[in-house]
Amino acid sequence: MSDSPANPLPLLSSIDSPADVRRLSRSQLPQLADEVRSHVLDSVSKTGGHLSSNLGTVELTIALHYVYDTPRDRLVWDVGHQTYPHKILTGRRDAMSTLRQQGGISGFPRRDESEYDTFGTAHSSTSISAAHGMAMAARIKGESRRAVAIIGDGAMTAGMAFEALNNAGVAHGGLLGDVLVILNDNDMSISPPVGALNKYFTRLMSGKFYAAAREGAKSVLKHTPLYEFARRFEEHTKGMFVPGTIFEEFGFNYVGPIDGHDLDSLVPTLENLRDKKGPQFLHVVTRKGQGYKLAEADPVKYHGPTPFNPAEGIKPATTPPKKTFTQVFGDWLCDMAEADPKLVAITPAMREGSGMVEFHKRFPTRYYDVGIAEQHAVTFAAGLACEGLKPVVAIYSTFLQRGYDQLIHDVALQNLPVLFALDRAGLVGADGATHAGNYDIAFTRCIPNMSVLTPADENECRRALYTGHLHNGPVTVRYPRGAGAGEAIAKEMVALPWGKGEMRRHSAQPQTHGRGAPRVAILAFGTLLYPALKAAEALDASVANMRFAKPLDTELVAELARTHDALVTIEDGCIMGGAGSAVMESLQAQGFNLPVLQLGLPDTYVEHGEPGKLMSQIGLDAAGIERSVRQRFLNVAEVRAVANK
Ligand SMILES: Cc1ncc(C[n+]2csc(CCOP(=O)(O)OP(=O)(O)O)c2C)c(N)n1
Ligand SMILES: CC(=O)[C@@H](O)[C@H](O)COP(=O)(O)O
Ligand SMILES: [Mg+2]
């Protein structure tokens, strides 16, 4: 890496767009790679973000922009967590200091951020479908653009990737798209990779397989033009053309594997492929964390670090931090597994993020990492439940969106006892709108047989998980990223009274029936109970901790409606169709007619930023709740004073 103190990035500082990259000589590219890598490490160590994957895509990114005519040719990055080198080369070098911060650039590709970001990603395994769409559009419009999907070995495990291969490999209306799929194989997902596909990739990479395949290919192809093609590849790129791989069966020309850190292999191979018609598949081998020893040695730890000193690496916290909801879940899972041999736990490739490392260690035969396969995870759980087991699917709220039909058709319709531990409920912060868990209350509560629990703090989360585990039907227990307001977590398992909320504060104000300042009750679902309690002190409002979005405590709703002049609902989920809407439906059904203010996440995408600040900006901190209630029900003149607090 460059070490000139005057300008640590002498070459990179002259690169403002891929056109500048294309003006470089081939011999300058390794230096550019060093500088890009150095800038990635320097930036991410200051802002936090996805590190290991980006260190691994430096050369591939340079080669792609060098060979392809971007943005005219379309690059589609799968997941997009590996696009920092791409951002750096496409005019966002200096903006890296704002990465994932409010008002700054996103950690993922975004069409509204750059013309080089041809497709918004963050949820995995969409790239081949999108690139195929773009390639077919070019064909239909008679344009000679190329489309390239760059997909990791982890992302390749999703069914959606294979649905796209299945479609892209055959002609439609006599037309084949000029799509190139690049498999960026670093033998890692976030955790070590799983499944038969990973074993297959390993076999493809093993010298034995290659050699055999290569010899086989030569004898089969000897007298065909393809033989010449294969021979040229070998000569010029160290890659090889191997028929008979699964990708060939799908109708793609499979080329590789080649070393994804060797620009002398990458550039000529891509040049060859660029000029080929029809679906092409390039297998590139990279190393996660490449060029930073600590990340190479522990790519999991450096997958998505918070800021750290690159000279020292990530250090353990000096004082043990407060337990997160994720850790509360992980502890509960181990304790429950001790007590109930029927418990099995499933993660779609999120062992670390979902707090399951310890469970995996202690209960390896009851732990299933199914790969990035949320739909399969849900139906697999349904199958286990059919046979009397008690599956727990640990899944981020945002990723359950992938398994929605499976949730309805395979789990809920058959009323199977599957517990969904929904992490990252509500806003998540730096990952932004793509990862926000805003919709699960709305999309789960409308499903017959589903129960939806919204614990307010860590203690209640443990109790909710236990309650869900005991229940004989499908349940979600949702909780946010990070820690909550809870104190010490009680070890014993005590179930929550089913479908019942609890009163946490009683207003001292009398009911006025419209003849004075109204007596207000706040009905809180989830962790916003705590800012609601704070606001209620200032407002002298009653507060109920509702605990269940479904079954809703309709008796408590009725009681609050009878004894108050106005109600407020609050949740860290979308307002439309959420828990507040459930309260409205219940009031309507029970014949109540009183003013209700629904607070929650607005009908818009909240972008990346620090979660506390974002919540304050959308009025979901204590001051914002107080302000909204006053504005709607109380002395409007006081609102300004509260706004200035
Ligand atoms: C649908 C979906 N599920 C899970 C994730 C979380 N996730 C982000 S990156 C990743 C691993 C991807 O592995 P790979 O594609 O091999 O890329 P690498 O991290 O190795 O660069 C996972 C599981 C996601 N983004 N989208
Ligand atoms: C890219 C991706 O989807 C994950 O790496 C995600 O960024 C993890 O988020 P958490 O840090 O909340 O686990
Ligand atoms: Mg990978």
TrEMBL record:
Binding residue positions for thiamine diphosphate: 81, 122-124, 154-155, 186, 292, 374
Domain annotation Transketolase-like pyrimidine-binding: ranges: 323-487
Bound cofactor: record note: Binds 1 thiamine pyrophosphate per subunit.
Binding site for Mg(2+): 153, 186
Cofactor(s) required for function per UniProt: thiamine diphosphate; Mg(2+)
Matching PROSITE patterns: TRANSKETOLASE_1, TRANSKETOLASE_2
Transferase in keyword set: yes
Keywords associated with the record: Isoprene biosynthesis, Magnesium, Metal-binding, Thiamine biosynthesis, Thiamine pyrophosphate, Transferase
Catalytic activity reported: D-glyceraldehyde 3-phosphate + pyruvate + H(+) = 1-deoxy-D-xylulose 5-phosphate + CO2
A molecular-function term among this protein's GO annotations: 1-deoxy-D-xylulose-5-phosphate synthase activity
Protein name: 1-deoxy-D-xylulose-5-phosphate synthase
